[in-house]
Design a protein that fits this description.
The protein is α/β, with parallel strands linked by helices. Helices cover about 45% and strands about 15% of the residues. It has 18 helices and 11 strands. The chain has a 7-stranded mixed beta sheet. Strands 2-3-1-4 form a 4-stranded antiparallel beta sheet. The radius of gyration is 24 Å and the shape is globular.
């Protein structure tokens, strides 16, 4: 069948369709792209242009909402095409203005769009009614929900929260780790696409083509991993006889980092998310890794998965995962503040269950990629108050403006040896 999304007007139709799926159907950005490209039979040659405009709108969405509010109350079911017009006019500038105005005219939105654009001060795009430096201003400036801006200011102070917002607004670095299981030298140091980091075995990818097209990535010689995960494992004194457990509630490379070490004879891995379970099994098969027992299991069912207690228990429960604000342009749309209480309860349960399954003298390593004291410092403090046989060995908060380029909290919690009577 002939492809019919070949003229500019229909490209705009696709852009609007994708954004409608993201905002009104709660569909993830990458899923919405793939779904629309397949279902609408969009030619590959025009996909990058469409994806670029969609991404631009998402990364500046809160600004466009305020600009439209200058003219008329914003309505998500009505004004997304105006957001697209503003995204192209102010930032993207790859579509001709008349192409988008034709679409807007058909939807009776051209006057709103032109008036919103005419109100923009070219030297100061953010509306003047938002006081510079205020939480409302920073929310729009850095495309971050207001409740998060206020929370960070409360938890970390004005100066640090400002640095967090700035860092999250910058492009994310792509870090990869060498697959040590291959037992071969891949000469990555001689490859100009990669730059060594201060963490041995971790490199920054600086190539022009997407990493997924790189030969080393396609042949599983390298995989995605940020420096913090390797640093955390390397700081532990894990011996061949130690039993290791891992509760993993979100996509992360900790299981691969653990399994990269030959002295690890077995890993008991519990995935609290079905998609993560499926993805992890696929990766394990690709890497030909067999020394792992993997289950789909929630925090409440840890006990049923383990036949014996473990010496090191990595607890990475479901969480607000605010690190994704930096990585994913639509994360702020999908994550709801109201879900926090439920997630924090899961984290408490995860620590309780892990405590029941950790040997005397063993350790719990609690890790969450987020910047929220309720899920980090506070939850560990509450755990220690309830469990006097555990003590905090150390804790660390990785911040996105540091070399680690990540938001990650880790606490090492040691279980005391039981004294013989």
């Amino acid at each position: 069948m002939e492809n019919w999304f070949l003229i500019s007007m229909t490209k705009i139709d696709v852009v609007i369709s994708i954004l409608n799926d993201v905002f009104t159907k709660d569909m993830r950005f990458n899923v919405a792209l793939k779904s629309n490209y397949i279902n609408l039979r969009v030619e590959r040659s025009v996909r990058p242009m469409i994806s670029g405009l969609v991404g631009c709108e998402l990364r500046h969405h809160l600004l466009f909402v305020e600009l439209i509010n200058e003219v008329t109350p914003f309505d998500i079911s009505k004004h997304l095409p105006v957001c697209v017009y503003l995204a192209n006019a102010l930032f993207y500038k790859r579509f001709e203005e008349k192409e988008i105005l034709l679409y807007l005219k058909k939807e009776n939105l051209s006057e709103v769009a032109l008036e919103a654009l005419n109100k923009v001060n070219k030297e100061k795009i953010i509306p003047e009614r938002l006081v510079s430096g205020s939480p409302e201003y920073l929310s729009v400036r850095y495309n971050t929900p207001l409740w998060i801006v206020k929370m960070w200011a409360k938890h970390f102070g004005r100066g640090l929260s400002y640095r967090l917002l700035q860092a999250n607004y910058k492009p994310t670095l792509t870090h990869v780790r060498i697959n040590d299981l291959l037992g071969e030298d891949i000469n990555i140091e001689k490859d100009s696409n990669f730059k060594a980091t201060s963490t041995k075995g971790i490199y920054t990818y600086e190539g022009n083509e997407p990493l997924k097209k790189n030969d080393k990535f396609l042949s599983n010689q390298i995989f995605l991993e940020r420096p913090a995960y390797k640093e955390i494992y390397d700081s532990l004194e894990i011996e061949p006889f130690h039993r290791i457990g891992l509760l993993s509630g979100f996509t992360n490379p900790m299981y691969l980092e653990i399994l990269m070490h030959e002295h690890v004879s077995n890993l008991e891995m519990m995935c609290a998310d079905f998609q993560h379970y499926c993805d992890a099994k696929k990766v394990l098969n690709l890497f030909n890794i067999s020394n792992v027992n993997i289950y789909e299991a929630s925090a409440e069912t840890i006990d049923t998965c383990l036949s014996e207690n473990v010496d090191y228990f990595f607890v990475l429960p479901r969480n607000s995962n605010l690190e994704l604000l930096k990585d994913t342009p639509d994360y702020f749309i999908h994550f709801k503040q109201e879900s926090l209480d439920g997630l924090i309860n899961e984290q408490r349960v995860a620590l309780e269950e892990a405590a029941n399954r950790t040997t005397d003298g063993g350790m719990i390593i609690y890790m969450v990629p987020t910047l929220n004291k309720r899920e980090t410092l506070s939850i560990v403090k509450d755990f220690l108050l309830r469990h006097p046989t555990y003590s905090l060995l150390n804790e660390k908060l990785y911040l996105p403006y540091e070399d680690s380029n990540t938001s990650l909290y880790v606490a090492k919690i040691m279980k005391m040896e039981r004294k013989d009577d």
